[in-house]
Amino acid sequence: MLFILCAIVLLGCGQTFAANQRINLNLAIFLGEDEHSKVTEIAIKNALSIIKAKTKYHVVGHVFPLQESSTFEAGQTVCDVVETGVAAIFGPESPQINEVIQSVSSSLQIPHFQTFWNSKLQLNESQTYNLHPSAESLSQALSTLVYENDWKKYTVIYENEDSLMRLRESLKQRKPNDLAVTFRKLGTGPDYRPILKQIKSSEDLHFILDCKADHILEVLRQAREVKLLEDYHSYILTDLDAHSLDWSEFIGVVTNISTFRIVDPKSASAKNAGKLWMIDPKTIKSKTALMYDAINLFITAFRDLAQKEEIEIGPLSCEDYYVFEHGDKIFNIVKKPPKNSRSILPGYLTGPVFFDKNGQRSNIDIQIVELMKAEYGFRVTGTWNPNNPTAITYKLTSEQREKELEKEIQRKNFKVVSRIGPPYLMTRVPEYGKVYYGNDRFEGYAMDLMAEICNILNCSYTFELVPDGKYGNYDPDRKEWNGLIGHLLNRKADLAVCDLTITYERRLAVDFTTPFMTLGISILYAKPTKEPPELLSFAGPLSLDVWLYMATSYLIISMIIFLVARLNPNDWENPHLCDPNPEELENIWNIRNCCWLTLGSIMAQGCDLLPKGVSTRMVTAAWWFFSLIMTSSYTANMAAFLTMSRMELTITSAEDLAAQNKIKYGCLAGGSTCSFFKDTNFSTYHQMWVQMESADPTVFETTNPDGVKRVLTSKRKYAFLMESTNIEYESERNCDLIQVGGQIDSKGYGIAMTANFQYRKSFNEAILKMQEGGVLDLLKNKWWKEMNGGGKCSEEESSEEDELGLDNVGGAFVVLAMGIGLALIFSLCEFLWMVKKLAVNEHISFRVALEHELRFAINIWARQKKVKRDPLPIVDKSDLKTK
Ligand code: ASP
């Protein structure tokens, strides 16, 4: 429907404008038929009256509201209006009816100003200017913002196919490794919930919402209903008027919502316009501002040209060949205004206007604004300009940003997910009659760590357990993560705190803080169980056979020496050295002496009786040689035997484990330790993985404590590959456990958080602060060495000295005691025998002789003993009788 608002005042047909005349100018203005056009009309009227007041021009604006689909009407209207003699055409606001208007303006060479985003714009060879930022500029601004926000994966929610044009640049800049962009068409509305629910299930967090400003609030309202407006979501709205909506119902929404705008409501011209049009400058729509700027631009150029030459505007016809003669000149002046030219209206609402050679607006500042969380409205975070298309000039300093985050953190209660595993998180054993709730149910390193962090950041937290108790592994078949990582990805928690290892694969899915603990994979093994040494352990270095053979040899050799000595004349000696021709020769090598000689040599003590004959010496030498070999072998073996019994370890490294198959080894199923062996390129570890996988029964354990238990009960037939921190914890408490070898790799535990967690920097800083202040060491010491029976084994070890115990040498003492005992018995027997002989020889009673000899024996000062006895005491007859 064609509706003419202003009466067409045909005053200037066929006129020539001279210097001092009041000049009438007709402008044809095509607007849309929406509610916002009213404000545009007010803006136009206002502009025209300013022009009238400030110049000699009486400008009449012929405003035609047109429906989007009325192409035929548009054609007719434009042809009708050019017959009245128009100096310029403005609008329309939509691309649908633009073509017909642009073709008329182009063929009649009437300057034409467009104010909408036109993806199909062909400006070459035409008289058309487009004041709206070009499709390319908007697309580049959007792509730069996406890049700066570090969005690797996002969903484009769009309303029509123009979105693809707007996003062209942003899509071009994507790298091959970036995850796919998802496109979702919004549909016709007004119920967008089905599509929003689908988007929600895709688990994407970042969205570009490309729909008309009028629909934005409704879409976001419904997004809020389906929980797509949480604090970890972020949106970029592409409509340049999004900031001008009434956002009051979204005060307090924690989602990051950013958009672009070309009208700065805080600029002097916007404030001035707001006052004149009696509206809030924040609500000025870009199309109104662009129309205002277009009129300003044209009238300024017209004035500049009219100052140089006379301009004639006559009626034209769509069916004629006549064209607007000065159209070309005005076009050129708009493109390149004289240096001292000042705009007639007070300033441009969208900033200085420049065009490229095709008449497309260039060099426009696009502001990036974000919805404030606690207050009403948007604030500028940066600006984008086509001169530097790959960068955003930020207005908000990082300090300001940090301060805001600090404040936000104080309002947060972080949901922390964890799993039970000592000493990181353990369930508290309730004292009698007490029931624990909330965080009080747990204790451990992770709880203390969070408490310290929140002490620094002034935040609060609530712990909960992950239902499946797993750390987090990706299942390629189901295409999903389990455990703590899955929990974070499903947005059921903000943070995951426990002994969660930072791995590359996990890092792609979630974010991690800097590590709060460093570690590596190592081997947990059982110490050799120490059997108490046997009493006769000194006999251990030689086998029983050897001992028996030695004893037999000893006896045989002793006998041989005895026999050989009897046969050998050199061993028959003169007993009286002063008598050269003795009547008898004596041989000292009786059985006793022979045994003594052989015993002395095997004990490495020697003997002062030595044979003289060649053959006896040869036998003795042979025995000495045998003794030398046997004693040194015994000594060497004894040393090795004692050392071995103390540190009997069969494996010392992962390589040793890999090279054998007697000791089985495994790791925690579904943990990063197993993943390390699974994904490694190092042949030894890969071979270990193959061994582990093929082992039957399985060598994998579901928890670390299970692995520890298996090591303890398998009698050194099983080793568990575990992280060094956990090995340290276990071997502090169970002294039968030992870490074998060093660390196979090097990694760290970090606090996992949802991707793009905005408080990550604050958490990192808190961790660094704790590291530098020694708090992390204190916590580790507390939970490793002090709590739950820690420090037990280090104490034990220190008391255990590196020397032989009584047990080891007890046998030697026993042999000594037996020797002494035997010697005492023999000495007693010898003594009694001697007393008996004395009693018989001296004809005295046994008792008297015993008394006499005993008295002498205990008189330790008597150094000499008489051979002839002193006169004996009178023998008592009764005494003799008793004998
Ligand atoms: N800390 C490991 C993880 O995060 C568990 C392990 O493999 O020992 O998966």
TrEMBL record:
Residues carrying the site annotation Crucial to convey clamshell closure to channel opening: I651
Position of the signal peptide: 1-18
This protein's UniProt keywords: Cell membrane, Disulfide bond, Glycoprotein, Ion channel, Ion transport, Ligand-gated ion channel, Membrane, Postsynaptic cell membrane, Receptor, Signal, Synapse, Transmembrane, Transmembrane helix, Transport
Molecular-function annotations in GO: ligand-gated monoatomic ion channel activity; signaling receptor activity
Species, as recorded: Ceutorhynchus assimilis
Family listed: Belongs to the glutamate-gated ion channel (TC 1.A.10.1) family.
Pfam families registered for this protein in UniProt: ANF_receptor, Lig_chan, Lig_chan-Glu_bd
Cellular component GO terms held in the UniProt record: postsynaptic membrane
Cross-referenced InterPro entries: ANF_lig-bd_rcpt, Glu/Gly-bd, Iono_Glu_rcpt_met, Ionotropic_Glu_rcpt, Iontro_rcpt_C, Peripla_BP_I
Binding site for L-glutamate: T501, R506, S672, T673, E723
Site description Interaction with the cone snail toxin Con-ikot-ikot, residues in chain: K678, K769
Top-level taxon in the UniProt lineage: Eukaryota
Membrane-topology descriptor: Multi-pass membrane protein
Disulfide bond residue pairs: C735-C793
Name the UniProt record assigns to this protein: Glutamate receptor ionotropic, kainate 2
UniProt-annotated location(s): Postsynaptic cell membrane
Domain Ionotropic glutamate receptor C-terminal: start-end pairs: 413-786
Positions of transmembrane segments: 546-565, 621-642, 813-835
Domain Ionotropic glutamate receptor L-glutamate and glycine-binding per the UniProt entry, residue ranges: 423-490
